[in-house]
Amino acid sequence: MAPTAAEKKKHTYEDYLKTPEDERYELIEGELLMTPSPVPRHQRISRKIEFVLEKFVTENDIGEVFYAPCDVYLDDENVVQPDILFISKERLNIIGEKNIQGAPDLVIEIISESTAYRDFVQKKRLYARSGVKEYWIVIPEEESIEIYIPRDGTYTLHHAYGKNETLESVSLGDLKIVLKNIF
Description:
Blueprint: H1 13-16, E1 24-28, E2 31-35, H2 40-60, E3 63-67, E4 72-75, E5 78-80, E6 84-88, E7 100-101, E8 106-110, H3 116-130, E9 134-139, E10 144-151, E11 154-162, E12 166-168, E13 176-178
Parallel strand pairs: 4-7, 8-9
Antiparallel strand pairs: 1-2, 3-6, 4-5, 6-8, 9-10, 10-11, 12-13
């Protein structure tokens, strides 16, 4: 007989550290989840966003940008690897030797077939609860980016940008990204 949801073992950060180094895992609500390698289109979009974001952050000396795989330790049952993340200069102290220890200011996830539910539901809930100030969900198939901001312990959609629009960040004031250059 298969174990019920109540009988499932909750994993911890200690269990996460024992996962194979040649595979990507995340720990969400105590569940170890393997993450397959992204497809080339995902990586292309990620690289273009990273380039624009890194250039903006460096030129304005406002913090640091990281990209997957980079562990973000939120608590003992939640360790994620966002596609791209930003940490403001005022909060650089959360950058540890082995991982980011706390919620980044901005998290960007690029949807793939295998991670859509995780990014739209599980991580969205987790990031809101953890204090991520701005969450972008990039949807390659629709050539769009949705920006979510916290409100009453959850996220609300701030704006959905299409390919022919210019994205404007909520927390990074002057950051504007022409999306036709991304997709």
